[in-house]
């Protein structure tokens, strides 16, 4: 039986650097990188105008992503998922993906302070002007209100990176 791949997933507040870290890990592990932002923009161009739209469209594509990632892991491909793992439910989805097929995983928790996240969002909105309307302090505060710090009791292999 072939060795299964490893799933790498992320937790951290908006602006913590999850996408940057995901790209670096995918490159260093020669892994497949799946970005929720990229998938949503391809499947639903110009249709996500609010946080509620994001939630709706994200939930629509997750069943496909779930089975696709499992297929990749089963054949030994490492997968880096640049999807938020910022709530217990989001992280449970990652855990379901791997536990159903007994694959390894690692949750990388970027434990970065709010001031640093906000500074990085400001820089990102300047370098990616298409995100300027979304990458605001108000959005950060709203999204952060849902953030739940990952706990070992969730059954995850957590690697915490502090600022």
How would you write the strand order of the largest sheet? 2-3-1-4-5
Rg (CA only): 16 Å
Label the structural class. Answer: alpha/beta
Form type: globular
Give the low-confidence spans. none
Mean pLDDT: 93
Total separate domains: 1
**How far apart are the first and last residues' alpha carbons, in Å?**
40 Å
CATH class: Alpha Beta
Largest sheet, strands/sense/barrel: 5 strands, parallel
Pfam families: AAA_33
Protein name: ATP-binding protein
InterPro entries: P-loop_NTPase (IPR027417)
Note down, in words, how this protein is organized.
The chain has 163 residues and is of the alpha/beta class. It has a single domain, classed as 3-Layer(aba) Sandwich (Rossmann fold), CATH 3.40.50.300. 48% of the residues lie in helices and 18% in strands. It has six helices and five strands; from the N terminus they run βαβααβαβααβ. It is globular and about 45 Å long.
